[in-house]
Amino acid sequence: MGALEDLPEEIPENRQTQEDFMNFDDVDFFNDLDLVEDPYPYFEYLRSRGAVVRLPRHNVVSVTGFDEGVAVMRDHDTFSSINSATGPFPPLPFDPVGDDINEQLEQHRPNMAFGSMLVAQDPPEHTRSRSLLVGLLTPQRMKENEEFIKKTIEGLIDEFIDRGHLEAISEFAYPLATFTIADLLGVPEEDHGKFLPLLGKLPGRIGGDDEVENNPMMKVGVYFYEYLCDRRANPRDDVLTKLAQATYTDGELPPLEVITTHAATMYGAGQDTTVRLIAAMMKTLGENPRLQQQLREDKGLYTAFIEEVLRLDGPVKSTYRLARKKSLVGDVEVAAGTVVMLTLGAMSRDPRKFDAPNEFRLDRKGIQQQLGFGKGVHTCIGAPLARTEAKLALEHILARMADIRINETSHGPAGRRHYDYEPNYTQRALQNIHIDFCKA
């Protein structure tokens, strides 16, 4: 099965001329709202300058090369994940001194934004923290959760199937992801509804992140702290009790505050990655009728479809590292304290790694190497759950919905589409996706 016949050979936005590229010379990626809906021409501009290039502002080096980026991800001694979710903002709370800032970094880590979260930790602390969550993802627990997912999907589809249209994020992807991760973490079913309003703003927001006290994820943490306190005092045969009693590999029982932070992190990871993946899937299906037919005829193509969506329109545009010491990124020398922008949206389209990188191909070789969920020890912890939900959602959607198409009143006619994305420089997050369909 090759590239789809009715898909464009190449994504039109990426057919850039040298004149177009000149318009990007002084762009500030972190503050330019014009790049939010379609950042890919800018990424191609960066690639045209090299696999690793310095940006004009904020002491940032951008990586568009697959191999160069993966090398950074794997080198924890040289590059810290402390700024993985935030990039260059807020700026470092210290002035880097010398060719090695490890001591300065660890001294200031407690005061850095999101510094205690799993995504910002470095080995060996990251390895130690992640071990607390391993027991939650047993095959038996995932199997039990899968049955819950199927029931939830059918219930959600029942709500809109007779209407012939839906907004796929608020009416499907978001409640599905929220209820599923709540179930996996052992939140009592009668409390699932409490979590629906708690959609937090993602770090990396253009214009500045919200104050911590205004972040709904704080409320998520409060709920989990209450659950975990109760389970330590009154153990039950449930997932929350396992989480409350989880110990490090050396047998030490962590403070409840630490467990609460990791539970809230896992909740967020299991929720937003799934929402964004399903939204991108619905957009892709709605734009490509022939693709729908191919998937209906061959369920064996589901995995390839999901991985290609992740590669071409994945949930993360960029993630970040901080150079701990003077080093080389590709062939570019960077000073200690430099922000390294791992431009996943470009790395997954590196023509040195993927043939015809701007084509959607169901027979693409090595597709599992795409970077939609990151790479290495910081691969998104919610990735297995997101893939499971996406596959089950796809199966049930195709079974019950026919002639899936983009609503032109909301998004414009084919060839002149417009989509609203979160104003964010790290995440690729649709705000809404309106779909019309016929009942199958």
Account of the protein in words:
The chain is of the alpha+beta class. The protein has a single domain (12-439), classed as Orthogonal Bundle (Cytochrome p450). It is built from 16 helices and ten strands. The strands form three sheets. It has a five-stranded mixed β-sheet with strand order 1-2-8-5-3, sandwiched between helices. Strand 1 and strand 2 (60-63) form a beta hairpin. Helix 11 crosses helix 13 (302-313). The longest helix is centred in the middle third of the chain and has 32 residues, at 256-287. The relative contact order is 0.18. The model is unreliable at 1-15 (pLDDT under 50).
The CATH superfamily label reads Cytochrome P450
Mean pLDDT: 89
Shape: globular
Q: Tell me the total number of β-strands.
A: 10
Order of strands in the sheet with most strands: 1-2-8-5-3
User: What is the percentage of strand-forming residues?
Assistant: 5-15%
Rg computed from alpha carbons, rounded to a whole number of angstroms? 22 Å
CATH class: Mainly Alpha
CATH topology: Cytochrome p450
